[in-house]
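Dear colleague,

Following up on Tuesday's group meeting, I ran the structure prediction for the two-component complex that the binding team flagged. I've pasted the input sequences exactly as they went in, so you can double-check that nothing got truncated or mislabelled along the way. The C-alpha cells for the whole assembly follow below. Feel free to forward this to whoever is handling the docking comparison.

Inputs:
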Amino acid sequence: MTQTAPTHLLLDAHREVLEAATAALATREYYSRYPESPSPRVYGETAAEDGQRAFEKARNADFSALADQPGTGETVGSEVSPYGPELGVRYPQLDVDAAVAAATDAIPAWRDAGAEVRAAVCVEIIERINARSHEMAHAVMHTSGQPFVMSFQAGGPHAQDRALEAVVAALVEQQRVPSSVLWEKPTKGDPIRMQKDYQVVPRGIGLVIGCNTFPTWNAYPGIFASLATGNPVVVKPHPRAVLPLAITVAIARDVLEEAGFDRALVQLAAEDDGDGLAKTLALRPEVAIIDYTGGPGFGGWLEKEGAAAGKLVYTEKAGLNTVVLDSTDDLKGTLGNLAFSFSLYSGQMCTAPQNVYVPAAGISTDQGDLTFEEVAEKIAGAIEKFNADDTRAVEILGATVNDDVRGRATDVPALAERLGGQVVLDARPITHPTFPDAVVRVPALISVDAANDTAYTQECFGPVAFVIRTEDTAASLETFARTVREHGAMTASVYSTSEEVLQQAREAAARAGVALSENLTGPIFVNQTAAFSDFHGTGANPAANAAYTDAAFVANRFRVITSRRHVA
Amino acid sequence: MTQTAPTHLLLDAHREVLEAATAALATREYYSRYPESPSPRVYGETAAEDGQRAFEKARNADFSALADQPGTGETVGSEVSPYGPELGVRYPQLDVDAAVAAATDAIPAWRDAGAEVRAAVCVEIIERINARSHEMAHAVMHTSGQPFVMSFQAGGPHAQDRALEAVVAALVEQQRVPSSVLWEKPTKGDPIRMQKDYQVVPRGIGLVIGCNTFPTWNAYPGIFASLATGNPVVVKPHPRAVLPLAITVAIARDVLEEAGFDRALVQLAAEDDGDGLAKTLALRPEVAIIDYTGGPGFGGWLEKEGAAAGKLVYTEKAGLNTVVLDSTDDLKGTLGNLAFSFSLYSGQMCTAPQNVYVPAAGISTDQGDLTFEEVAEKIAGAIEKFNADDTRAVEILGATVNDDVRGRATDVPALAERLGGQVVLDARPITHPTFPDAVVRVPALISVDAANDTAYTQECFGPVAFVIRTEDTAASLETFARTVREHGAMTASVYSTSEEVLQQAREAAARAGVALSENLTGPIFVNQTAAFSDFHGTGANPAANAAYTDAAFVANRFRVITSRRHVA
C-alpha cells in the first residue's frame, strides 16, 4: 500500500477537521464547519462579486472544466432558470462505456490509499467547494428556483456540512475494523498465533442521481459516502440542475489529481431532458450503489428493480409531512413559524409541511380557544401577512421549479373542488421585481375533512397545504401515524401544551417512523435539519429508505477482506 | 420508558460479558465466551449424560415447550437423522396470522427497553443455550449428520460465540447514537438551545430461515442481530433440522418472559418438507428483515423478490471455495491440513475447499519438485491416509446429509466422465460402526483441466473436490479471482513460499472479494472461522451478501427517531 506525498499532506492538513467532525457526530452536539452567512467578513470582500462573475462566465458556453472526461464528442444541456433565463451551458456528453471502464481502473489505488487518506482528500474537495460558495449559490438559485440566501446556505455550507458528515460517518465505520491483529488462541501447549490483516474494499461504482430542487444538498451525502469508502462515483444530475454538480465534479477531479489519484474517480453524466440516462446507468453491472433523490415513480422503480438486480439503493422520494395542532401557549410564535415553513421555497422542500391536523372542536391557545375554522383562518392570515411585501416575499418564496408545481398552484379553487375541499387561502401570484418571468405563488391553504383522505394522502408538492379537520387530537395522532406508515413523511411536528399529548405524539412518531419537532415557535423550522445532529429522513417510512447520515447509510458501501497466516 | 426489575438484574449480571465481548470485537483479538471442549470438567460431570437423555426424551414425542405458541392445532415434523433413525418429534404448527399479530404487539415494550437491556436479555438466552450444549450436540448431530464433536462445537459454543458477537455488534451500532443531546447553536444573541432525544426503533419482524447442515451456527447471527436491535423474530427452520432451533426458541421465550417481556418476540415456524412456508413468511408485509442460509435457488429468489418487496435480505448461499497451490516448504503439513479440510463433515461445510488450482508444471516443495500428477496423487493419498481407520474417520466425516449429496458421491467415475475429468480418488464408502444406515463417503478427488471450466464452476456440495491444472500460478490466481467474482466463494487459501506470490494472492482475493488463508499447515483450517476475529463470508462476492458480523449486518436492522424541542 503506497501513499503519495500529497495525500499525506492532506491528511496532516485536515486531521483536526476530521477529529472535530467525528467528535460532533458521536455526541450530536452543535457543529458546523462551513459558515452559513454569505457575509464578506466570512467569505472575503470580493467573494460575492467573484461568484456572480464566475456564474455569468459559465453561461452560454461549453463547460470546459469537464472536457477531459471520456466523451462522445457531443454536448448536452437544456437548463432554464426557474427565474426565466436559459442558462445556455453546454456539457460534454459522457461516453458511458469508457467512463465505467475508467472508473473501474481507478479503484485499486484509491482502495489501497486507506480510509484516512480518502477522508482527507474528501475534506479537501469540500473545502474547495466551500471557497466557491457564492458561485454555487447562483448555480443553485438558477437551477432550483430557490431564493438567493437559501441557495447560498442550503446549496453551499449546509450541503458542505452534510458532505463532511458523510465523510466522517464513513471513516468511523471503516475504522471500526483494525488494519491488523495478532490473534493468539490459548491451547494446552503453545498458543496458536495468527497475523490477520483486514482490508477495506469498495463495492463498485456509486451512481448518484441528483434532483432539481436541491442539486447539491441531496447529492453530497451519497457522493461523499461512496467516495470515502473507496467507490468511484458517477454523478447523474437532474437535466434541469446540472451546473451545481458540474462545478462540484470538476473541483473533485482536480483535487483527486493533485492528491495523486485518478480524476476518473468522480465523473459527471449530464444528459438532455428525457434521455433516460439514469436507468441505463442504474442497470450497468459495474454500478453497485445507487443514491437517488426525486419523485416516487423512478424512486420506486429503483427500490424494486435496482434492489432486485443486487444494487444497494438509497432513496429519498416524497411523503406527507404532517403538523398536529393540539394547543399552544404561543399562538403568535406558532403561526409565524408555520407561515415561514409553508412559504420557504414555496413549499418545494421535501421537508415542507403539507398536512395540518386540527381537532373539529378547535384548539386552546394563549389568545383563547379557537374553532377549527378560526385556526384555519389564522394560519391563512399568517401566510398572507408573512408574504405581504412582494419584494421581501420573493426572497423567501423563490420561484416555482417546474410546470407540475405551477399547475397545482395556478387554479387552487379547481384543485380544491376536485379534492372535495374548501379554499381557505388562494395562491396569490407575485411578480418578481427582478425576474418578471419567474412564476411565484404565495402558498394556498385548503381545508378538508379527515374522512376525505384521498384529498391529503398524496404529496402535493409546492405551495399548497391542507388543514384537516379531525375528531380530536387522538384521532389526529392516529391518522398521522397511519398515513405516514403508508405513504411516508420526511418531517412531522406537533404543538401542544400537554406533556401527555407530547408523549403520545412521540409514541405515534416512533410508530410512524418519522422524526418529530415539538412546539417550534422560534428560529428553528420543521423543514430544516442540522448536519451532525438531526437526521434527515429516518429510513423507517416509505418517504426514504435511508437517513443522512447514520451507520446504515455508510456501512454497506464497503466490505472487509481478511488475510490470515500463522506467525511464530 | 419503563424497565422491569428482572431486566435490570440481567444488565448487572451480564455487563462484564458485554464489555469483554465488545472490546474483543473492536480489536479482533482472540476471544471466546463459550468453551469448545465438551469435557465434564467444563460442562459438569453429568452434562454429557443429561444432554443425551434430554435428546432421547424429545424423540417420538410432542415438542410441548412450544405448545403455547399461537397454533393451528396441527403438528408437523418429518426429521430423519442422517445417521438413520427417524427423530419422531412433533412440533406445533404455527398459526401465521396470529403469530405475526402477536409479534407485532410485542414490539413497543421490547423497543422501549433500550439497546442495553435487550443485549443483556440476549446474553441470558445464549447462556441458557450454552448450558444445554450437550443436548444441542445430539440435536445437531441427528439433523445435520455432523460428527459428534463437531456437532457439539459448531452447533454449541461456536454458534453461541457467533450469537454473542452479533449481540455486541448490534449494541455498538445502537450506542453510536446518544440517547439525547443538548444542542446549542451560537447566534449573535443568546444561543438557540434544543433538547434532542434519539430513540432506536426496530424495522419489523425478522424472519430467519435456517439450513440443514448448520441449523444453529448459521441461524444465530440473524436471530440475535434482529432481536438485539428490537425486532421480533420468527425462526423458520429447515424441515429436516428443526430440533436445534426448537430448543433455541423455547429457551429464548422462557428467558424473555422471565425478564418481563413477551414470549411472542421469538417464535418457531416449523413445517413439513415441501410446505413452502419460507416463501409465505418472506412475503408477509410485517416481515422487514430476512436472514437466509441455504441453496442458491431460493437464496437468489429472496435476493431478487424479497429485496424488490423492500425487505432487508441477508443471504449465505454457495460458492467455489478455492485453494491455490504454488509452492510449500512444508508438504506434509500442507497435505495434512488439506486432507482434514476436505474430510471434515464430508465437505458439507459452506466453507469447505472444492477447487485446487495447481500449475501444469507442478510445484516445488521441501520434498522436491512435484509434477501436477504427483500433487494430485499426494492429495489423494493424504485423504486416504487421513481416513484409513473407519472408526476414527466417521468421527470426522459424519454422515451425508441428503440424497443430493449422496447422489454425487455414489458414482464418482460417472460424475468425472460427465464433467470431462479423471478420477484421482474415488469416494470410498464406510460403514458407520454405530449407525449402519448412515451413508458415509471418504472424499473423492477429480482432476480436470482449467479450460474445462464447466466442470468446476458450479458448487459440488459434499465429498468431491477438484484438482485443476492451470498454465501457471499467475493463471491460477487469475482464474481464482474471475471464478469467485462470477460464482462466489466463502473461503480461499494459498500455499506459496514466495512473498511476491502471496502478495499477488492477496490482491486477487481483494479483487475477488473473498477472505484468504495463507499457508495453513497446522491446527487452523480454511473451513473454520473464529468469532470476534474472522469474518464469516465477506458480502463482496455472490456466495453471500453479508458477513458475520460486521456493521453492515446490524446497522440497518434498526432506525433512529429523533424528537426535538426548544429548551430555556
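Chain A has 22 helices and 21 strands.

Cheers,
M.
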